[in-house]
Every structure is written in C-alpha cells, then in structure tokens.
Amino acid sequence: MIRTIPFLLFLGIGLNSLGAEKSSTGLLAEGTKWETPFYQRDSGIEGPIVFITGGIHGNEPAGARAAEQIRHWPIKKGQLIIVPKVNLPGLRADTRYLPGKSKELRDLNRNFPKTKEGPDAKDLPASTLWEYLKNIKPDWFIDLHEGYDFHQLNSDSVGTSIIDTKGNLANEVVPKMLKAVNAPITDPKKKFVRLRYPVDGSIARAAHERIGANSMILETTKKNQPISTRTRQHRLMVHVLLSHLGMVEKESVHVLVPKKSKELKIAVYDAGGVGGTGPNSLDKVFAETKTHLRRVGAVDIRSSTLNQFDLVIFPGGSGSKQAAALGSDGRQLVKKFIDGGGGYVGICAGAYLAASNYEWSLGISNHKTFCKTINLPEIGPKSMWYRGPSAPVKMELTEEGKAILGNIKGSFEVRYHNGPIMSFIEKDGLDPFQSLATFRSEVSKYKPQQGTMVNSPAIIAGEFGQGRVLCISPHPESDSKLYILLQNAARWVAD
C-alpha cells in the first residue's frame, strides 16, 4: 500500500502533475522570518520515502545548492521530500548560526530532540521542521552539510565524511556511496570516510531515534574546493542511495535544472582557473532575477550538463588554466554547445578563453588579444597582458551596445584587472565582431602598452554557429549599478 504524506495546516500548498508523478510545494514557518520552501515528489508507485535537507548551517552553501538540484530529479517509485534551504536567513548572511538567536538556540542543528530529553524541538525554525518530519515519517533522512577541513588531515573537522546511524540497511549502501564519491579523488587523505553516530541534538539523530528513519549526514569540505565540486559530491552520494532504492535513473545525477521551466537557465563555470570572487559576484548579479543559476565544473561540462542550459558564463581568473581544466574534450563540448545555439559570456579570463589566437583557446570569437612578450631594456622579457593591479577605468557603450546592454549614456567607471585588449584576427569561418563598448581611459605598466587600450573594444559580440558570444574585458559584476549590463548580456546571448 502506498504511504500518503499528510500535510500540516500551517503549510502553504501548491500541486502540479508531471505525468504519473505529482509534485507539491509549500512553505515551512510561513509568515515568519524563518519561512522557507519545501518540495514533495510522489511517483504514484509504492516505494520508500526519502527526506533531504540542506542549508541547516548557513555557511555551508553546497548542501543547499545540491538539494535544490536534486529536487528536480524524476523519480520512478516512492516519494522524495526536500527542504533545500532550512536556515534561509543564515544562508543569506553566510553565517553558521540562526541570525539573531541567543547562544543557547543559535545552532539550529542542536535544537532537535535529544536522546535523554523530551520529544519536542526547541523554538522556531527547528520546531516547524520537526513537526513536518514527524508527520511524514520517512524511511530515510539525509542531511547535507560541509566541514571546514578534510577529516583525515584534521580530525577536529568532520569534512569529507558520511556520518550515519549504522544498521543493516545503511551498511549495504554506505560502502557504495563511498566508492562512487571517492573514485575521482586522487589524494587518499582527501577521500571520504565513514564516521561516528550523529551528534546529540542533530536532526539526523532525532529522526533515527524518534521516528526510526535510516539517517545520514553527508559532509563535504569547503577548504580549497569550489562549490561546483562540493555540490557534485553531494549529488553523487545521494544518487547512489536513491539508485540503490530503485528511485532514480542513472542519468539523474547530471540533472541540475528543471527541464520544462521557461526561466533563463545559466551555468557559471566554477572550477580550475577561476579566481577571486567572480562566481560569488555573479550570484549577486542574478539574485533578484527569474533565473536558474548553477555552478558547474569541468567534470560537469565533460558530462554534457551544458545541454540543460541557455548559456554559460566563464568568469575571471586565468583563461589558460580554465582551458587546461576543461581539457580538449571539455573545450570541444563548450564549442558544440555554442554551435548548437547556446550562449556564451566571457568575463576577463573568459574573454581570453573565447579568443582565436591561442593554441588552448576556444576560437569562438573573431578576436585576438594584445599579449605578446617583449624584451624590455634593463628589465627583461615581460608579457604585455599584465598591466598591474586592479584599477578603475572609463568605458563607454557604443550605439550597438546601448541596444543590447542598456542605454547608459556617456562614459562610466568599471573595474579593470588585466582583461584582454581585443582586436580583429580575421579567422576563417567567423564573422567580424561588433564592438559594444570601448575603453576611454587606460591602465598600463610598461611603455609598449601605452596607447593600446584607449578606444579599443571593452565589450564585443558575435556569433558562432547557431549561438551567440559576448566577451567583456573589465568586471561590471563588481559594481551593483552595472548588474543590468550582465543581465541584458545573458538575455541577448540566450535569445
């Protein structure tokens, strides 16, 4: 007999039918500062009930992002319930704790029923989530977290581990989860390990002791790892479990966005070669827009995940290192995506990557960069791409640029940090690019650079196959007043 999930009166509910599968959404703690969405998927076929939470600690964003991606996986049997952003105010503030709570109540994952105490959770939002969980009575409960270091390198941290309540059912699947997530990890000290019983006061422990759920805490590691890697690790482990239970197909692990959504789907490259705060800044650029923005790594791209998106953005860092991380296969898949109608936005390093004058570049834009090495008297050989530390420069949109990016009149300041000085290369098979903006001032460190930047293109646009390419030398994502430029750029390349 199929178990039916009861709904609580304080939850707002919306229903959608996906073929035989039914999905519902609602809000926990509706009308309070702790309001956060939940998602329920019911296959209509008897099977296990799996409950997944992310973002209980607000400074552990990968779990929340992974849960947001997992909620779009089609399921073959059973029911899947996900609360991706339990501590939504904490996630927004990038703090572990519940903002504004006392020291005794600030750690949400210590506010659930303890082994030797009463059956109730402490205070909002723990009490709301706990009542919801009790009513559902899941067979499996999975809580997604992040440690600050690798456990095998620092035993004070639980990062890169599976913490579970043991038992025969867990013993069957945990080794499979470890094998899958560890397969691509080359450093044995950074591999995932199975650790102790969940801590008292955690929702995972309470779910096991009070409800009888098979509970797990999946811990990735924040240290020196991009979010794209950590979210993929969470997805891998959850996918092994759901596959073990017969709930999902093999391909589901690569599903990052809803298939039928009409909202703009944006992939932001976040792996080898990305530097600074580019991806975080892009999160802010699109935070208030109706978009599905996901961080993707080189492994994701080589798994053909770009086909789910309308465009990909490559941010600042090092174009050559981004190319190396992608590998020849990854670079070809990016080109194939653009050629087939996808959009490309390259910022600084991403504009170098799109160029046609490097052995490693994508060759999707008909431009070259001023980057030669010159032997300077009394200094020696110096590469001309380097113009010094970050500095503001003046930029002005062309008439074509105003039509695409927004009607910003006159020159304005934008942050520049060694972005490419772009000019035509006249590559066969590519039409000339359009200049959407020009530099009106200059940054230089060496004499041969002087005069090469002023009046050169700061933003260019062109086509590659059926797709569109837009390259930006400076960093408009660094200034909230210029977010509109990138928002319009994304819409244009995706059109």
Question: How does this model look, in words?
Answer:
The strands form 4 sheets. Strands 1-2-3-5-4-6-9-7-8 form a 9-stranded mixed beta sheet, with helices on both faces. It is elongated. By secondary structure, the chain is of the alpha/beta class. It is 26% helix and 25% strand. The relative contact order is 0.09. It has 2 domains: 14-254, Zn peptidases (Aminopeptidase, 3-Layer(aba) Sandwich), CATH 3.40.630; 264-494, Class I glutamine amidotransferase (GATase) domain (Rossmann fold).
Can you tell me the CATH topology of the largest domain? Aminopeptidase
Q: What percent of residues are in strands?
A: 15-25%
CATH architecture grouping of the largest domain: 3-Layer(aba) Sandwich
Helix content: 25-40%
Side-by-side strand order of the widest sheet: 1-2-3-5-4-6-9-7-8
How many discrete domains?
2
Question: How would you describe this structure in keywords?
Answer:
495 residues; alpha/beta; Rossmann fold; Aminopeptidase; 9-stranded mixed β-sheet
Summarize the structure.
The protein is an alpha/beta fold. It has helices at residues 61-70, 88-93, 126-136, 168-182, 203-211, 227-244, 278-285, 298-302, 319-339, 349-354, 399-405, 483-494, and strands spanning 14-18, 21-28, 36-42, 49-54, 79-83, 140-147, 161-164, 193-195, 214-221, 264-269, 291-296, 311-314, 343-347, 367-369, 373-376, 380-383, 391-397, 411-416, 422-424, 434-439, 457-464, 467-472.
